[in-house]
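testing teh design pipeline on a random one, pls ignore if ur not involved
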């Protein structure tokens, strides 16, 4: 299918990502990719990949062995294929399909997912169905994500999610119900005076029950500028 609204943004190192009005990305993608700390030998998957931003950030910053980028919406899937061709990346495998039906060919070391944050039938939906699917649990739930991760992760493999703080109990309940033990939790705040607006959670398949709560991450410092950690995540400290 031909699209007329594709534009490109540079991620650095010759990597460009294709975006459209429906399928864009935000700060949460950079935060989750950094939180996951993929390793070079890892076999990975990114569920609900959208434009493929997290898979491409994993490639840029960590160079894992292979990453499956799974997306149910065809336009987003097509965007990623354009990005991979333009950036000459062959270690990301775009997969068009439903995560509820998918299982990796080989057991995975790491799965990341920036899922829809809102429970279906809560809050106003966007006029665009594509945007609503990305924001609301219309096509998959947190439980679906954790069940899919259970099928494909190796024992000791990691699932890293981001979501809104009010979904924390849902995430931990879904993880445990699928044999994935919550191991790390980090809250993200817009500045030191604000409550958290995002949570980052890591679970391990078959892990023992011990949860490490990490120091808060502040997007902006008290003076209003980007925090040193965000400068590191955005690689602004390298320019």
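output:
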């Amino acid at each position: 299918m031909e699209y007329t609204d594709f534009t490109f943004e540079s991620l650095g190192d010759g990597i460009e990502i294709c975006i459209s009005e429906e399928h864009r990305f935000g700060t949460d993608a950079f935060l989750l990719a950094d939180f996951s700390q993929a390793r070079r030998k890892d076999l990975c998957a990114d569920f609900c990949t959208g434009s493929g931003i997290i898979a491409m950030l994993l490639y840029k910053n960590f160079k894992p062995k292979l990453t499956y980028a799974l997306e149910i919406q065809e336009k987003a899937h097509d965007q990623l294929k354009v990005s991979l061709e333009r950036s000459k990346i062959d270690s990301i495998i775009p997969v068009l399909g439903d995560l509820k039906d998918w299982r990796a060919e080989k057991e995975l070391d790491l799965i990341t997912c920036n899922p829809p944050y809102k429970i279906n039938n809560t809050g106003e939906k966007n006029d665009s169905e594509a945007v609503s699917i990305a924001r609301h649990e219309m096509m998959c739930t947190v439980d679906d994500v954790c069940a899919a991760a259970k099928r494909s992760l190796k024992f000791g493999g990691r699932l890293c999610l981001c979501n809104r703080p009010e979904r924390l109990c849902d995430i931990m309940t879904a993880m445990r119900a699928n044999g994935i033990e919550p191991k790390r939790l980090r809250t993200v705040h817009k500045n030191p005076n604000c409550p958290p607006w995002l949570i980052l959670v890591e679970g391990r398949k078959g892990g023992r029950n011990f949860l490490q709560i990490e120091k808060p991450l502040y997007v902006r410092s008290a003076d209003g500028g980007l925090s040193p950690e965000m400068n590191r995540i955005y690689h602004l400290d390298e320019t």
